[in-house]
Write a sequence for this structure.
């Protein structure tokens, strides 16, 4: 029985190692200039290396991503005493490191993983590092990561739904839903897809759009409604001829889970207070 377990463990470790071999790495990470670190950072880096040792048993052969992770995580833990750097939980760290195979070239996503790992390795903040965040990042696009970074300092945000009600019969349909300037303000690469991105973030439980809540101020909504593209929709003569165009004002806000995600993954660990 013991030999079977040993064999199974060996096969698992070997399989994970093979998966990790293909992870891309940035060349500038291993440049000499990048290795010129201060004494305190060097001590932290050594602590990080020691803390990662138990995890490396499961992911042996991940040299390409190991250098990237250690460089990024070490820099985020430079203000943490070396004695407070602890091994990350394998059920969080192993999936996160594996996921870097697919996201290493996407800086917005790999940065989320680096912050999550750093959060999990600081004794003072490890409680915030929910293992479910790994899968959430896996299910996010780089633009959605940009939106979460924007919301970290700019939530709640106004949204509008544009409704067209038939002049005869009274039926209506939603012409455009969850219209906002979030995609533009978050510097999304594909800003017109912002409503779709918001749907996904709602699905992940990071944001909510309660239809009964709206912001008190008029200005945030006016900014959306006065945007040239939105104004063109509201004043479309073909629609106005047969429909009454209405604007429904609603609000997007972070959930409690979304706020925890931001503290654990979005805000740079090196800039946060340890609590």
């Amino acid at each position: 029985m013991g030999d079977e377990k040993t064999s199974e463990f060996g096969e698992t470790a070997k399989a994970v190692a093979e998966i990790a071999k293909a992870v891309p790495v940035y060349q500038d990470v291993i440049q000499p200039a990048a290795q010129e670190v201060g004494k305190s950072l060097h001590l932290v880096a050594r602590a990080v290396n020691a803390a990662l040792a138990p995890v490396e048993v499961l992911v042996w052969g991940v040299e390409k991503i190991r250098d990237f992770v250690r460089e990024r995580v070490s820099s985020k833990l430079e203000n943490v005493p070396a004695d407070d750097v602890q091994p990350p939980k394998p059920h969080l760290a192993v999936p996160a490191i594996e996921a870097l195979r697919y996201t290493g070239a996407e800086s917005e996503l790999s940065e989320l993983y680096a912050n999550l790992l750093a959060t999990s390795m600081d004794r003072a903040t490890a409680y915030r590092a929910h293992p479910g965040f790994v899968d959430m990042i896996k299910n996010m696009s780089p633009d959605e990561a940009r939106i979460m970074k924007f919301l970290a300092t700019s939530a709640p945000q106004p949204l509008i739904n544009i409704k067209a009600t038939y002049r005869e019969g009274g039926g209506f349909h939603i012409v455009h839903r969850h219209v906002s300037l979030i995609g533009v303000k978050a510097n999304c690469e594909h800003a017109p897809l912002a409503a779709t991105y918001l749907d996904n973030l709602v699905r992940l439980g990071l944001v909510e759009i309660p239809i009964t809540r709206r912001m008190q101020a008029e200005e945030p909504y006016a900014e959306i409604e006065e945007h040239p593209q939105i104004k063109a929709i509201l004043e479309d003569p073909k629609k106005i001829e047969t429909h009454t165009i209405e604007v429904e004002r609603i609000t997007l806000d972070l959930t409690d889970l979304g706020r925890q995600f931001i503290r654990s993954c979005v805000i740079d660990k090196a800039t946060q207070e340890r609590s």
Remarks:
- Residues 149-258 form a domain with the Translation Initiation Factor IF3 fold (CATH 3.30.110.190).
- The longest strand covers residues 243-254.
